[in-house]
Write a structure and sequence with these properties.
Chain A: It holds the Pfam family TsaD. Chain A: GO terms for molecular function: transferase activity. Chain A: InterPro entries: ATPase_NBD, Gcp-like_dom, T6A_TsaB. Chain A: One of its GO terms (biological process) is tRNA threonylcarbamoyladenosine modification. Chain A: This is tRNA (Adenosine(37)-N6)-threonylcarbamoyltransferase complex dimerization subunit type 1 TsaB. The complex is a heterodimer of chains A (about 240) and B (about 375). In chain A, about 30% of the residues lie in helices and about 25% in strands. In chain A, helix 5 packs across helix 8. The termini of chain A are far apart. Chain A is α/β, with parallel strands linked by helices. The longest helix of chain A is centred in the middle third of the chain and has 18 residues. With about 375 residues, chain B is an alpha/beta fold. In chain B, helix 6 packs parallel to helix 9, helix 9 packs antiparallel against helix 10 and helix 10 packs parallel to helix 11. Chain B has 13 helices and 10 strands. The radius of gyration of chain B is 20 Å and the shape is globular. Helices cover about 40% and strands about 20% of the residues of chain B. In chain B, the strands form 2 sheets. A 5-stranded mixed sheet of chain B has the order 3-2-1-4-5, sandwiched between helices. Classes of the chains: A alpha/beta (about 240), B alpha/beta (about 375). Chains A and B meet through helix 2 and helix 4 of A and helix 2, helix 3 and helix 9 of B. Bound molecules: zinc ion. Zinc ion binds next to helix 4 of chain B.
Chain lengths: ~240, ~375
């Protein structure tokens, strides 16, 4: 099975992964991967980045089994550029499109990262339920709570970091509000306090879902509706003030 | 690629319409538009975030509809054209991202196109005025007057593909925006243009003398020594004057003569617009003026422009309204001109530019 994943909930990223759902451990491989560092140039860089994953996108695209797009939460403009690209590619190539919550990518990465002591992996980074958080701007974070095996327990939410009750917190959102989180009894993993969701980790999480379900259809993916979590700021204007 | 009569797919998302048009050379195949206007009504104006959300959901269905209406497939298309500016940044991003994905998925060349110049190029698609364009060519000495909720400009068009110049523009609100704001002052619904146009027919345009922005000698100068804003517009002072006027009636406990206010306001806007456009034409040797933008729907604008152009010996061209408002066909029409003139396509890495100047016809 070959999938293209796209995530623009923070950085602009895309990846192609190939695997046999019956034997994930032995067959899973990253065919190609693209990710930016910056979080503000999605409309420029994403399409060239996706193009770079293929030798010939015109023939290889239609042969994909699925496109999976991160549906956020994340800053709206960037998020939309990834979902627009994913929807347009899926339509043009005639490939199935699924959505996945972007914070799942970070949770997958936490799950895959061991804790090192003296250069030796001694334990998983998260031993119990944990939270991943990204920057929601306006003094808030997008966050969700996962089990130690990276299964979603609660979320996604948007709100001040202070809303997060004492757990281990991972991700760029934790890095920004490390002091507030610590004050609330949370533990911020310094080695993981700048990480952002990426298409590569989203793809790894997707592969795990597909392998566990035995099929794409049964894997419990979302559709590609963006998880905005906030209304537009628009206010219906009140009645005009009269002069008398 | 068919370079003499190319099939172009055009994408427009600079404001609140999601447009996909298909054009072969100068022949319009289809012009499919999905508008989020209804969603903006209760806010009294276009809300950029709401427009962007609507573009995201409208794009693929609009594309599908356009292809099926025209009876063509993506494989038939020679090139893709997309509005890259000017316009609302978040709205532009959606159309640009979609167009890039379409180009990469199909391997077709992509043209990042100037929205304002596309408003001029659309004239080539209207059979009723194409005759004036003599076989798919623009007339010599062409100017354009673009009036909409997002822009108000006078352009000189020497060549659609390579030489367009901005002669004048609004320095604050767009004319259509002034209509929306004044409509709200008068308790009329959004969009304000049609509401004011209708009401103004019952009113006296000379009842109240509202200010004509940037018409004082210090701004105008003379033909030989032009002032700093000879061909420019300003509507924010006018909007304030209307507000003061309405408040005046209220303070005196009098009923606001809404029809007279609407008519007088409309006249103030359109008087300046048409007077300056005709002045620019006369002084710049422009003999044909093309009208574009949504405000071209305004009956008084058409009437006044026709009158004044006729008096000055200028030929006025008004494409049909569905081509004047923002749409994908106009983007495709300009794209076709670029292909036919051998202009190189854009790099896939281009950035949308919300304030793209008219001198930049494509990126
Ligand atoms: Zn326009």
């Amino acid at each position: 099975m070959r999938i293209l994943t796209i995530d623009t909930s923070a950085v602009a990223s895309a990846a192609v992964l190939d695997f046999d759902p019956q034997d994930l451990a032995r067959t899973a491989r990253v065919v190609a991967n693209f990710a930016t560092k910056d979080t503000r140039s999605h409309a420029e860089v994403l399409a060239p980045g996706v193009k770079s994953l293929f030798t010939d996108p015109v023939t290889e695209g239609p042969a994909l089994d699925a496109i999976i797009v991160g549906t956020g939460p994340g800053p709206f403009t960037g998020l939309r550029s990834g979902i627009t690209v994913a929807r347009t590619l899926a339509f043009t190539w005639g490939v199935k499109l699924y959505g996945m919550m972007s914070l799942d990518a970070l949770a997958q990465q936490v799950f895959d990262t061991p804790r090192y002591v003296d250069g030796r992996a001694v334990a998983p980074l998260a031993m119990a339920d944990f939270v991943v958080a990204t920057d929601a701007r306006r003094q808030e974070v997008y966050w969700a709570k996962y089990s130690a095996s990276a299964a979603l327990i609660d979320g996604p939410h948007v709100g001040p970091a202070a809303d997060i009750l004492p757990v281990q917190v991972f991700g760029a959102g934790a890095g920004i509000y490390a002091q507030q989180l610590a004050a609330g009894g949370c533990v911020v993993e310094a080695s993981f306090s700048q990480e952002q969701p990426t298409a590569l980790e989203l793809g790894r999480a997707a592969m795990r879902k597909i392998a566990a379900a035995g099929s794409l259809e049964g894997a419990g993916f979302l559709d590609s509706t963006p998880l905005y979590m906030r209304e537009s700021d628009a206010k219906v204007p009140g009645p005009r003030k009269r002069a008398l | 690629m068919n370079q003499s009569n190319p099939l172009i797919l055009g994408i427009e998302s600079s404001c609140d319409e999601t447009g996909v048009g298909l054009v072969r050379g100068t022949t319009l195949l289809t012009n499919t538009v999905s508008s989020s206007m209804e969603e903006h009504v209760r806010f009294g104006g276009v809300i950029p975030e709401i427009a962007s959300r609507a573009h995201l959901d409208a794009f693929v269905p609009t594309l599908q509809q356009a292809l099926s209406d025209a009876g063509v497939t993506l494989a038939d298309v020679d090139a893709i054209a997309v509005t890259s500016g000017p316009g609302l940044a978040g709205a532009l991003m959606v159309g640009v991202s979609a167009a890039k994905a379409l180009a990469l998925a199909t391997g077709k060349p992509l043209y990042a196109i100037n929205h304002l110049v596309a408003h001029v190029g659309v004239g080539l698609l209207d059979e009723s005025i194409a005759a004036v364009y003599q076989g798919g060519q623009l007339p010599e000495k062409l100017g354009a007057l673009l009036v909409s909720g997002g822009h108000t400009e006078i352009l000189r068009v020497r060549s659609l593909a390579s030489d367009v110049e901005l002669l004048g523009a609004t320095i604050d609100d767009a004319a259509g925006e002034a209509f929306d704001k004044v409509a709200r002052l008068l308790g009329l619904n959004y969009p304000g243009g049609p509401a004011i146009d209708r009401l103004a027919r019952e009113g006296n345009a000379k009842a109240i003398r509202f200010p004509r922005g940037l018409t004082m000698p210090k701004y105008m100068g003379t033909a030989e020594a032009p002032g700093p804003h000879r061909y420019d517009f300003s509507f924010s002072g006018l909007k304030t004057a209307v507000a003061r006027c309405v408040e005046g009636y209220e303070a005196r406990g009098e009923a606001v003569p809404v029809a007279d206010v609407a008519a007088s306001f409309q006249e103030a806007v359109l008087d300046v617009i048409t007077a300056k456009a005709v002045l620019a034409c006369k002084e710049q040797g422009i003999t044909t003026l093309l009208l574009g933008g949504g405000v071209a729907a305004n009956s008084r604008l058409r009437e006044l422009a026709q009158q004044r152009c006729l008096a000055a010996g200028i030929t006025l061209l008004v494409p049909k309204l569905s081509l004047c408002t923002d749409n994908g066909a106009m983007v495709a029409a300009l794209g076709a001109q670029l292909v036919m003139n051998g202009v190189a396509p854009s790099d896939l890495a281009f950035a949308p530019d919300s304030s793209m100047p008219v001198t930049s016809i494509s990126l």
